[in-house]
Every structure is written in structure tokens, then in C-alpha cells.
Design brief:
The complex is a heterodimer. Chain A is mainly α. The longest helix of chain A is centred in the first third of the chain and has 42 residues. Chain A starts with a helix and ends with a helix. The model of chain A has no long low-confidence stretch (mean pLDDT 94). Chain B contains eight helices and no strands. The radius of gyration of chain B is 20 Å and the shape is flat. Chain B has one domain: MetI-like (MetI-like fold, Orthogonal Bundle). Helix content of chain B is 79%, strand content 0%. The termini of chain B are far apart. The chains are: A mainly alpha, B mainly alpha.
Chain lengths: 218, 218
């Protein structure tokens, strides 16, 4: 078995185009995870105990069950309740909700890291609750947690191939359908692996550097 | 409750657990090997370990799984789906685990190593008797999280035709429809397996901390 460079060159444009879908899924999923995760974290910290408890159970449940099954669940069950979207949107929804359970914990750690004195000062200055959150707590809570959030961005990027199972033509899906057509698996799968490696390795290094800079600042 | 669905799903869950524990054992060996390899005094060992870790962390698990499934037979290696699953899961999780091992070994107080040298202890003995037992306490909490990640990742092996829990769920859906019931049950079964793993690891943590006498309660 040898690596056929001509064939590899032939399919590379196709795979690079599919990378755009992979990016769309990653960016959409992360945007959702950042918003939902923050809401869950705030509920867990500030809501009345029964509701906070419920949010905790949600986080535990979503974190402890596989993304693949959550994806299937949304893909097959949502249409039964009249919610019909494209597979890509369903995929973004699954990625975003799954990772929101991770980002919620990161946010929570960040918010807990803000000294109590900041809360007390906001109360002493008669700040409204919403102003305390948006002007005092979150601006201090979020910068230190950017590296862990970045790590989850990279992790989500590497989970996007799962969307191939619900017919999204992202990188892996495109490679598999191309391989199924020509019955040549070696070249397409190798290129897909390389694209993932070339994109996620530098991102991981970047995040590590960011982390080190934040640590030395404090 | 749809109890008639349980027997085939429980059969699948047993395969999921077998897959999880077999891969966990192999991944632990790989993690220790690669994690210590990255701290080796020989450059060649460090390079090999780093390449292994970055390749398997950098490219997606699902891509790796399909790679082994489709490309290994092309070079004459035919493995049953279970072995292919164990191979890719343990290589992937082992790469993540090696970072835990590396960080934990580096977190051991340098005075401990210096004391071992001062007592004229051979490097291997110092590693086994002094460094690793203390590092192990620091490794356990992240290892517990990784074990749950591994359990969830085994669902991907259903995509290469192994009849574990997710595959059993998909078969039931194809035979009987009942999408929401089946997938909710599958999710619950994963939760039921993840929960004792988390609790069990916490017990092991406490026991180890007491035995080694460091990091107790932290």
C-alpha cells in the first residue's frame, strides 16, 4: 500500500471545502456553549436552591452521557415534536448543549474566584444586581478562565466529526463518502487526520502560552 | 416504564463496560510510559513520547477509530471490532493520561528527589518508592474524569459495528421505532455506569491519600 499523491491532490480541495462546515459547526456550537454555560453558572450560583439544584442535575446528566447519543436523540426526537431543522443546526445544538455543561463549571470556578469583598463593595455602593454582575463580577471572573474555555473550543473542534453520523458533510463525512465511492480509504482519512492535527496542535500551543501569561500576571 | 427494552440494552451495557475497563488498563500503561518518557533524560525517548501524545491528542478520536478500522486491513492487519475499539480508545485516552502523569510527577516537591539522591538511591528505586506514590495521589482526580470520558467515548465504537450499548440502542430503534424511549433509556444507562465510576474513584482517592499521607482531603 502506498500513498497516492495524485489522488490525494485530487481530493484535497473537496476536503478543504468541507473544513468550512467543520468550522461552522465549531463556531456555532461554541457560541451556544458560551451563552448557555454562563446562564447555567449564574443560575447555579444566584438562583433559589431548588432551581440551582436542578441546574446542577442537568450539568451532571449531560456531562455523564455520550455526545453521540445526545446527537441521535435530538436528531430523531426533535422532528417528532414538530421541530424540523437542518442536520447542521441539530449538530450545533447538540455540541453547544453538551459543552455548555463543561463551560458552566468553568464559569462557576471563575465567578467563585472573585473575592467576596467585591460583592460586598457592590452592595455598599448600592449597585443593582444586574450592574454588579455585568460591571463588577463578570469582568473579573472571565479573563482568567479564557484558557480553559479555549481548551474546550479545541475539544469541541475534535468532536465535530460525530456530526457525520447525522449526515452533515463536514470533514470526516465528506472523506468517508469520497472513500466509499472510490473504495480508497488511506488517502482521505490520512488527510483528514492531518488537517485536524495541523489546526488543533497550534491552537493548543497558543492556549498554553496564554495560560502562562495569565499566571505570571497574577 | 418500557421494561421489554431493557434486556438487549443491558447486554450492550456489559460490552460497554468490558470495552471501558480493557481500554482503561491499556491506557494507564501507555499514559505512564509516555508521561515518564516525556520527562526522560534521553532526547530520543522524549521525542517519541511527544510525537505519540501530540498526534493522538491532536487528531480526533473518531477519525483515529475509522483510520484503524479501514486502513489497518489494507496493510494486512485484520482485527475484530472489539480489538480495534480497544486499540484506538486506549491510544487516545493514554495520550491524554500521559499529560496527567507528567504534570503529577512534576508537582512532587523537588526536595523529595533531592533527598533520594542524597540517600544514594538508584533512580528507578526513587521513582518507584518515592516519586510515583506521591504523584499518584495527584493523578487520581483527573484520572477519574478521564475514566468517565473513556466510558462516554466507547459509544463511538458502535460506529464500527460493535454491539455495545449505543449499537444495541440503534438496533432497537430500527426494529421497533420508539426512538425517545430507547435513547432516554440508553442515556440513563450511561449515567448509571458513570455515577459509580465517579464515586468509586473518589473512594480510591481518599484511600490513597491516607496511605501515602499527602494531599489528604485536597
Amino acid at each position: 500500500m502506498r500513498f497516492d499523491l495524485d489522488y490525494a491532490a485530487e481530493i484535497t480541495p473537496l476536503l478543504l471545502r468541507a473544513t468550512i462546515t467543520t468550522f461552522e459547526a465549531t463556531i456555532g456550537g461554541m457560541a451556544l456553549a458560551l451563552i448557555v454555560g454562563l446562564l447555567i453558572a449564574i443560575v447555579r450560583i444566584a438562583a433559589p436552591p431548588p432551581i440551582a439544584r436542578l441546574a446542577g442535575i442537568y450539568v451532571e446528566f449531560v456531562r455523564s452521557t455520550p455526545l453521540l447519543i445526545q446527537l441521535f436523540f435530538l436528531f430523531y426526537v426533535l422532528p417528532r415534536y414538530g421541530v424540523s431543522t437542518t442536520p447542521l443546526v441539530t449538530g450545533i445544538l447538540a455540541l453547544g448543549l453538551h459543552y455548555s455543561s463543561y463551560t458552566a463549571e468553568v464559569y462557576r470556578a471563575g465567578i467563585r474566584g472573585v473575592p467576596t469583598g467585591q460583592w460586598e463593595a457592590a452592595i455598599a455602593l448600592n449597585f443593582s444586581l444586574s450592574r454588579t454582575w455585568t460591571r463588577i463580577i463578570l469582568p473579573q471572573a472571565i479573563p482568567p478562565i479564557i484558557p480553559p474555555l479555549g481548551n474546550y473550543l479545541v475539544a469541541m473542534f475534535k468532536d465535530t466529526p460525530l456530526l457525520a453520523t447525522i449526515t452533515v458533510s463536514e470533514l470526516l463525512g465528506t472523506a468517508l463518502s469520497e472513500a466509499g465511492r472510490t473504495y480508497r480509504y488511506f488517502e482521505p482519512l490520512t488527510i483528514v487526520g492531518l488537517i485536524f492535527l495541523l489546526l488543533s496542535y497550534p491552537s493548543a500551543i497558543l492556549i498554553k502560552r496564554l495560560e502562562r501569561r495569565l499566571v505570571t500576571q497574577h | 416504564m418500557p421494561f421489554d427494552l431493557l434486556p438487549p440494552l443491558l447486554g450492550g451495557a456489559v460490552v460497554t463496560l468490558a470495552l471501558t475497563f480493557t481500554s482503561a488498563g491499556l491506557a494507564l500503561i501507555l499514559a505512564l510510559g509516555a508521561g515518564l518518557g516525556r520527562l526522560s533524560r534521553w532526547r530520543a525517548v522524549r521525542t517519541v513520547a511527544a510525537v505519540y501524545v501530540e498526534v493522538f491528542r491532536g487528531s480526533s478520536l473518531l477519525v483515529q477509530l475509522f483510520y484503524f478500522f479501514f486502513v489497518l486491513p489494507l496493510i494486512g492487519i485484520r482485527l475484530p471490532p472489539f480489538a480495534t475499539g480497544v486499540l484506538s480508545l486506549s491510544l487516545n485516552i493514554g495520550a491524554y493520561g500521559s499529560e496527567i502523569v507528567r504534570a503529577a510527577v512534576q508537582s512532587v516537591d523537588p526536595g523529595q528527589r533531592e533527598a533520594a539522591i542524597a540517600l544514594n538511591m538508584p533512580t528507578g528505586l526513587a521513582l518507584r518508592r518515592i516519586i510515583l506514590p506521591q504523584a499518584f495521589v495527584a493523578m487520581l482526580p483527573p484520572f477519574g474524569n478521564l475514566l468517565v470520558e473513556l466510558l462516554k467515548s466507547t459509544s463511538l465504537v458502535s460506529l464500527i459495528t460493535l454491539t455495545e450499548l449505543s449499537f444495541a440502542g440503534r438496533q432497537l430503534v430500527q426494529q421497533q421505532g420508539r426512538v425517545s424511549e430507547v435513547y432516554l433509556l440508553v442515556l440513563l444507562l450511561y449515567l448509571l455506569m458513570a455515577y459509580p465510576l465517579t464515586r468509586g474513584m473518589r473512594l480510591v482517592e481518599r484511600w490513597m491519600a491516607r496511605r501515602v499521607g499527602v494531599g489528604a482531603g485536597s
